[in-house]
Records
---
Amino acid sequence: MALVKIIAIANQKGGVGKTSTAVNLAAALAARGKEILLIDVDSQANASSALGVFVNGDQSLYAALLGQRSAEELILPTGRRHLSILPAHMDMSGVEVELTQEGSHAECMQVALSGLRKNSTFDYVFLDTPPSLGVLMTASLCAADEVLTPMQCEYLSMEGLSKILFVMEQIRANGVNSKLKHEGIIMTMYNNTNLANQVIDQVQENLPEQLYETIIPRSVRVAEAPSFGKTVLEHDPDGAAACAYKNAAKEFLRRHR
């Protein structure tokens, strides 16, 4: 039996379309019949609310990270076929302190998700990580098989990418997760300017194998959709951003063939 693949959606820089990519890529893959679990690792719980899921602390990932409940029993339906969620709650803002005090923060996500590793229900598990290089981000990278980095078409986003790659190298080197792979880079919030095109060209020059061909355009519809508890595929199914995420899902599957 093949083990489920766990993929961290990660960029330590905020505002680059990370949660939008996690939610909409997961939804696009589910729409193609893949069984997807989205795990919200951010105390802001934006991925959860974007899918219209609201819980209290003992029903969230918080309880699994502290060993109070198993991750499997915290999984909830989203009302969408093939797409489930393990939600977050604002209580997770304090979990980093608790885990650090226990001295087990690096492996906490590995332990919490160990049961899911053998769960044949899901094809892919996505971790929507927080926009920082704190305990939860590091723990997510330690638990993941791969990292997918959404990157805004601006130069400051390249700093975020370089930091993620540096932390990944440290994690591999210290043996906590020696097989961690950087799966790819999805350029987001694209508008056709010289700056955006220069950034894409630079990523293409330095990391050609990791750069997705699909580029996600800047779209008001993407920003609007969470306020309705919808994905952009539901909110504006024929729009440019929805079509881009559908194409990104196709490309993701090709890359994992």
---
Amino acid sequence: MYKGKKVIVVMPAYNAAATLEKTYKEIPLDIVDEVVLCDDASKDSTVQKAKEIGINHIIQHEKNKGYGGNQKSLYNKALELNGDIVIMLHPDYQYTPKLIPAMVNIIGDELFPVVLGSRILGVGALKGGMPLYKYIANRFLTMTQNLLIGYKLSEYHTGYRAFSKEVLRTIAFNKNSNDFVFDNQMLSQIVYAGFDIAEVTCPTKYFEEASSINFTRSSKYGLGVLQVSVTHFLQKLGILNLDSYIKRSK
């Protein structure tokens, strides 16, 4: 608990057996009430490892639903468990769990309802091993998104995110893609719904066991991101009416 608010960490897992325990051991369980892992039909022993280290809430997809589909299961479960603050943490140890207290503090003290762990703030992205082509693509896409969406973030592509219960109950995340572009659709929904977003500097870590998508998938993701941003822009101009895909119906 943090000031009476229930804190839940959700972990979207796919073939994460090698790094799951190391990640889990750094989660500050003194303030985190529940940890939920969703295994997206892994081919390794991710589920067995999760049970061994004591994760109580484990969701298993019989068929791979994709990164977005994994998150949908996690956020729905977090709401079912009445989480007030929900942090998505990848179990591949690419993002440090040591930032969780800072993210919880920002939301718990009602400074911002959304917090992103940014790899771009500061100068550590390339030093931490981010491939040059990914860094350049990140900067280009982020610049374009800031212009089209009308918000200012250092990056839209981090997988380290924290949300208040109100945000997850407001936006229609279940209508988003099951693929990687889910993350950007969610941020578009959040901005359009009028929620403010904070960023904290997050160390960048790339290594062999860390999950990553190849160049082809990255290219598809980039095109999807641009489509989301253009759609958001047209929605703002009133050319499109997608309110039912942004906010949940009351």
